[in-house]
TrEMBL record, chains A, B:
Record-given protein name: Homoserine dehydrogenase
Binding locations of NADP(+): G10, C11, G12, G13, V14, G15
InterPro entries: Bifunc_Aspkin/hSer_DH, HDH_cat, HDH_CS, HDH_short, NAD(P)-bd_dom_sf
Annotated metabolic or biological route of this protein: Amino-acid biosynthesis; L-methionine biosynthesis via de novo pathway; L-homoserine from L-aspartate: step 3/3; Amino-acid biosynthesis; L-threonine biosynthesis; L-threonine from L-aspartate: step 3/5
The keyword rRNA-binding is assigned to this record: no
Domain Homoserine dehydrogenase catalytic intervals: 171-369
UniProt cross-references to SUPFAM superfamilies, sorted A to Z: Glyceraldehyde-3-phosphate dehydrogenase-like, C-terminal domain, NAD(P)-binding Rossmann-fold domains
Binding residues for L-homoserine: E224
PANTHER family in UniProt: HOMOSERINE DEHYDROGENASE (PTHR43070:SF3), PTHR43070
Cofactors required: a metal cation
Gene encoding the protein: LOC110412967
GO biological process terms held by the UniProt record: methionine biosynthetic process; threonine biosynthetic process
Provenance organism: Herrania umbratica
């Protein structure tokens, strides 16, 4: 049985789901000859680690307890004294994680799993790389920081996986990595990478006003609490940056041309969410309606996509032919069209749910299993 | 620089293309820190190996020469005396390959790459497994032999890759393996896995008679020399078997329900290709036309697919909703719809060219690179 030790950073929706997956996959993973040893779990406030990080683990009872505590909205520090573990405050947390990394990195490839949404983890991750740790990310922030940070994180390219940073568990990164290693040059990627914006664009295509569609999306729970976090395109542009960097483009987030679906004067610093939803949004209806109509006159549809091609990397509304995987998209699926030498006339298409804690955590888990051959 | 030693078995269209890819990817692979050392190449008649299999390789000049000799239709034995290599006849070939396997298997994970279409390679492959070799297959035959053979080949499950046995280079196996290792149970796979039959079914949907469509497909080079090799569904059923076995179904080829598009009395043993094309085929037009019409009355379309669900594994024409990736399929793309816990309402869809030497060889190459972490 091969043991993969890991520390989970971030224990919100995705992180908790990952712990549940790990526990429920015990017998499956045993059949695959693998045991995942969870050495520690941290959130933004605390860290809980096995009492003997070198040998022991947070057992399944403790992991279940971690999930329960988190779903109650309590702090991990509540676990102090429960089972064989120790808890640390946020200020001690970093030192403790790095201590374990230096103990286990080079010898075992200790996996630092980042399921947080924080830009604070990149420091620990970079030091972890130097200590021989493997890195698995669902968190986009570390990969969309500076190029210097990015290069550091991917410097041991076989030691990092980050499938769930784009399209949740969809096999996007793994498929692109296969294309790269087979020397099939990627000419163009066009992707609808936001379930929310995919839904919005296919609904306005059906003639509904943007304002109404966004409000329905919000009430269906498809959007962030402030829908402008989706409509700004920032989340999509982070995903575009991760894809572009994977293709070898040395660019920063600031180099990406991003089309926001609302104007600056309706931004969060100038207008409350309520004012935006009840007053601002409706002013955007006519423009979108007209663009939809014009596209339709050309036999086309509008999609909010990222386009990566040559030196071009942009995010925004594009007019696309109806007769394509992207053009036919309905609902909240993510769709990627990848054009290469081998997929030149018809693209390689990967499509499916691109959000949700379950599939995001499943992607992280597949990544962890995927690096099992690096260490004995 | 990590060296991956390999022996290529089968040097027809796919094998030759693989050698060309290996040569043209030298600088790319060097950047990835990997060097592919081709120790030997065999076809059905001969074997050519580096003069010192333990240390040396067939260099790029020799590999290019191998491709030239093969494209001329000549024998590999012609290479005797060219560069630092030795050639062996078919009768010596197996012993020689196994000699190298025993020399390099356990210590280096020597990769046995099967790009043949032969059922004769399974013996060498099985012995290679015992000697610690890795296995990469484009050849479906070894995996669709008996369950006993299959179990032997996959007994070291991290030591085998066979992406290009289904959907050519499409990331099918790698994606399914990710789902499996993340514990996301696969409830149902429906796939159009024959470019030829995909083309045929979408053309008859447009009202063309089957006989005419098959003849056009043949003249376009989409079919095997005898189109019945496609229409029988045998090739699709081998792919279905590989998928089903990957999902853990312990079944034999004979357990798959296969719908042939021609009746037994028009089979190759009873009718020549010419008689089939000029007399037999036209008799099948009415039946297909009626089925297409009936499906259309239900708002559906017909597709020739494999369906794997529970204990069910069958291959044939299915009536499917137009409003799905499979229903919208036009032309010769392969499409897979995979339904799991995470992809339950909308499936995970993988679509693209599922045939061609270039993409098949690219899939093989990605597989070879994918096992680089198993050996130092």
């Amino acid at each position: 049985m091969k043991t993969i030790p890991l520390i989970l950073m971030g224990c919100g929706g995705v992180g908790s789901q990952l712990l549940q997956h790990i526990v429920s996959c015990r017998s499956l993973h045993a059949k695959l000859g693998v045991h995942l040893r969870v050495v520690g779990v941290s959130d933004s406030k605390s860290l809980v680690v096995a009492s003997d990080a070198k040998q022991k683990e947070l057992d399944d009872n403790l992991l279940t307890e971690v999930c329960r505590v988190k779903s109650d909205g309590s702090s991990l520090s509540k676990l102090n004294g429960v089972g064989e573990c120790q808890t640390f405050s946020n200020s001690e947390s970093r030192t403790e994680v790095l201590g374990i990394a230096s103990l286990l990195g080079k010898s075992t490839g200790l996996v630092l799993v980042d399921c947080s949404a924080s830009s604070e983890t990149v420091g620990v991750l970079k030091q972890g790389v130097d200590m021989g740790c493997c890195i698995v990310l669902a968190n986009k922030k570390p990969l969309t920081s500076t190029l210097e940070d990015y290069d550091k994180l991917v410097s041991h390219r076989r030691f990092i996986r980050h499938e769930s940073t784009v399209g949740a568990g969809l096999p996007v990164m793994s498929s692109i990595n296969r294309l790269i290693s087979s020397g099939d040059p990627i000419h163009r990627i066009v992707g609808s990478l936001s379930g929310t914006l995919g839904y919005v664009m296919s609904e306005v295509e059906d003639g509904k006003p943007l304002s109404q569609v966004v409000k329905s999306a919000k009430s269906l729970g498809y959007t962030e609490p402030d829908p402008r976090d989706d409509l700004s395109g920032m989340d999509v542009s982070r995903k575009a940056l991760i894809l572009a960097r994977l293709l070898g483009r040395c660019i920063e987030l600031s180099s990406i041309r991003i089309e926001s679906l609302y104007p600056e004067e309706m931004g969060p610093s100038k207008m409350s969410v309520e004012d935006f939803l009840n007053g601002g949004l409706v002013k955007l209806d006519n423009n979108i309606e007209e663009r939809v109509r014009n596209a339709s006159l050309n036999g086309n549809v509008l999609r909010y996509v990222c386009v990566i091609e040559g030196t071009r990397c942009e995010v925004g509304i594009q007019e696309l032919t109806k007769n394509s995987a992207l053009g036919r998209l309905k609902g909240s699926d993510n769709v990627l069209e990848i054009y290469t030498r081998c997929y030149s006339e018809q693209p390689l298409v990967i499509q499916g749910a691109g959000a949700g804690n379950d599939t995001t955590a499943a992607g992280v888990l597949a990544d962890i299993l995927d690096i099992q051959d690096l260490f004995p």
